[in-house]
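User: Structure tokens for both sequences below?

Assistant:
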Amino acid sequence: MMLLDSFLVRAALAGIGIAMAAGPLGCFIIWRRMAYFSDATAHASILGVALALAFDAPIFGGALAIAFLMALAVTTLTERGGTTDTTLGVLSYSALAIGLVAVSMMPGVRLDLFGYLFGDILTVTRWDVVLIWIGAIIVAGLLAWRWSRLLISTMGPDLAFASGVNPRREQLILTVALAIVVACGLKVLGALLVGALLLIPAATARTFTRTPERMAVLAACLGAGAAGLGVVAARHLDTPAGPTIVCVATAGFLVGQVARLRG
């Protein structure tokens, strides 16, 4: 526990914990073309923060509940054929705006909006680190438990039904996993950037791998590396840690693209 007395170590552990869960989950986000889905879920978490403050409830619980409800709503719309990029965009930005307005209207409530929008990883506590790693373990466990079924349902509903897999159930599992990652990552990267840790490492890993399993493992490693290097770079450059982590991940993606073109 002495090691956790260092805020830099706590920040690195928090970032690595989120990355280890976000990397494999991000692979499914890419395979299913759910980038807007993850953004809508992340933006809605700000509304969860506002409601948690209003009812004097734990912020993590509020963010998790609203993130899950938003993800469930989007899933329902998708199943009914009513979801388009426009609809997702409306849901995403509306939830974010409503959350910000709700927070501003609460008398006597002081909230670091910058921290919740872009993350404030350098202020994570021991409890935050424990909570993040519990969430990461739950997400990793869900994905490992349902891995083959998730892959089959990702290939298409017809193949899933033919294989005896219920695609709606697998979609619900992904919804739960996404809500957990968003709620855990809110303090690390914020509502506007947590989606980047879902997408960028997975997109980079896709360049270097040929199997889903290798892509998931590499995405987790790349995300963890970006988190660790980003925290150290932010400390030395005196820059916001969350955006710096995303910049490091983006640099890795660009290197991957250059390597792919030269190969």
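Moving on to the next sequence.
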Amino acid sequence: MRPFAFFAAHAVLVASLFSTVSLQAGEPVAAPLSKSVNLEKAIDWREHTIAPVADPILFEDAVIRNEIRPVFGYQNLADDFATQGGDLQVYGMQLRWAATPRLGLMMVKGGWNEFHPGVGEDADGFGDLGVGLKYALIDLPEHQFILTPGVTYEFPSGDEEVFQGNGDGLWNFFVSSQKALVTFTCRRTSASRSPMMTTGRAPSCTTTCRPTTTSAATSSPSSWPTVTPW
């Protein structure tokens, strides 16, 4: 019985070793700790960013992502304006779809406008519809940098009662970039708006920075500094 017990114990040990190896078969070999941490940061840095809230129609995120984003806007009108005060409220929705890891399709403008002047009758109606696409031309995860040009077109499909539906449409050409620094993630968008049937262009440039985090939790949008040079 002793030889049998001896061989049985060794058989169990050998089987356990093979079972451990089989469970790990096909798994990548673990890299040194320092390299694996750096690689993880390079791959996941975009997952810890969120889309900007400053000027959401013109300021486009450089990261290609899927997004359903409600938008609410409120503008108070000055008493010395033609309407003698009042306000404008906008209820909209933005949709973004990552067709590929580099190509994004989007609807950046569309919704319902309510106009309440200080004098005269209230008005409401649909806003113009804006759609477009963007492409991550330069995407360097190892350097935590992305550069994405794109274009949107605003159809004059809204109601004139709320000052929409004018002209022959509006093109918006933009280039957005994003870079993760040591403690901040900065993104910048430069855009040029070109109305149809005219030669006028209205360039704009917006930059935002926010603290970089190592988890999905992010800072409040109200805490992000925003700089608009022109």
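User: Anything stand out in the second?

Assistant: The two ends are 91 Å apart (CA to CA).
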